[in-house]
Amino acid sequence: MPYKDLRGFIARLEKEGEVARIKTEVDVNYEVGAICHKAFTISDPEKRKALIFEKPKGYDMPLAVNLLGTRQRMCLALDTTPERIHRDWVERSRNSIKPVLVDSGPCQEVVYTGDKVDLTRIPTPIWNEKDGGPYITLPCWITKDPETGWRNMGMYRAMVHDKKNLGIWADPHRHISMQWRKAHAKKEGFPVAVVIGPDPVVTIATVARGGYGEDEMALAGALRGAPVEIVKCKTVPLEVPATSEIVLEGWIKPGTLKHEGPYGEAYGYYGESNMREYLEITAITHRKNAIHQGCYLHRTPNEATYLRLPWEADALVQYRTGGLVAVNMIDSVSIISIRKGADGLGKIAALGFLGTPAARTTKVVIVVDEDVDPYNLYDVMWAISSRCQPERAVEILKDITGAGIDPSMPEESKRTKSALISKMIIDATKTVAIPFAEAVAPKKDVLARVEKEWEKYGIH
Ligand SMILES: Cc1cc2nc3c(=O)[nH]c(=O)nc-3n(C[C@H](O)[C@H](O)[C@H](O)COP(=O)(O)O)c2cc1C
Ligand SMILES: [Mn+2]
Predict the structure, then answer these.
(1) How many Å lie between the centroid of ligand 1 and the Cα of residue 170?
(2) Is 129 among the catalytic positions?
(3) pLDDT-derived band of residue 211, with 50, 70 and 90 as boundaries?
């Protein structure tokens, strides 16, 4: 079992030299966002540090950002390596492990209810210039189906309207939206618990798109190899991970909306603001010395890009066409590598991949051979440059559902909220039947000798 709580994960990150602590006072309004922007604008995204702001001005709670903002740190959270991460995910997620209820947990060491409830005591940044307000950016929303009791966890950005009200924007097909529609159809309030800063595996499992009826908390248990311990909430009939840093409890009432947005979304653009549902908070509970956890979104790649790793693993599970080796999803562009046995299989693989629920938001799929590393973008450009002719390699597919937050979507699709876009396949694999040019390589035995005697050349 990798970690008991977020603190255990932060301690590990510190040991690995992955954390920068900002000890000077910082303003959560715009300054934190500007610092994140500057710190993350470097050419190698893997070198971006996790940032812990120790002194948000006017608060006695630190703020941690970008803890899961590299592939390497996602691997540390899941106790695996970049080479094994997908295989481990697929193997571990086969046997879900249900959470266990415990009597008490540190997430309720401090409890505020009634008049004491005040969301503005949490250091929540206004991240970018045009954001409509402060945003809690890594909230894990825990809810249950009003009819079946099935628990769902999902991540939906949360705007702090004021002391007691928290806005949500969730796509209509998100599980939480389906559940609250059922409650609201019966004119009933819908209870919600929003968890901030659980064990990082819980945060990652929250982003996974389990099927309708699947409990992402049981997936978290499977991924960490031990059940998540949960405690009963104080004012809603729900349970939350016992070691979470902060828990917000409340109700989404039928027929009540507030103005939400705009917000700098995951693709690095401000989305539309609109009248949307919100949570009326009935309790805030937290650990002693609680840590607030968030992410800063800007142009790709950002922490959300890496957090969507579960979708890559899901695509590997859902794909049934054969020969798929590895998947790299970068927002709406996916690069897949395949073991190609015959001509034509490049495009079949692309179609099989696009047909998986996990790749629903993929707009461009680039298919490469097994000898090309889909995570090395220069390698991918090499394949496109040298292995394909656009006339034969490119297919455009029209009127398919894409990502709702894609700002280039046709106006009609935006207006109708259908998210209909076009998609492109680039088959950058070599021909099989017609022998393809051979890639250069040194003489094998000489290379082996050079590698063995590397030190003597003095190249460091
Ligand atoms: C950082 C981050 C923020 C997200 N914000 C939203 C959001 O505001 N609204 C939304 O509908 N989906 C959002 N998503 C995508 C959902 O979290 C994701 O699809 C989730 O798995 C949905 O769970 P569900 O299938 O149980 O509804 C976000 C994802 C990430 C990684
Ligand atoms: Mn779900």
Answers:
(1) 7
(2) no
(3) confident
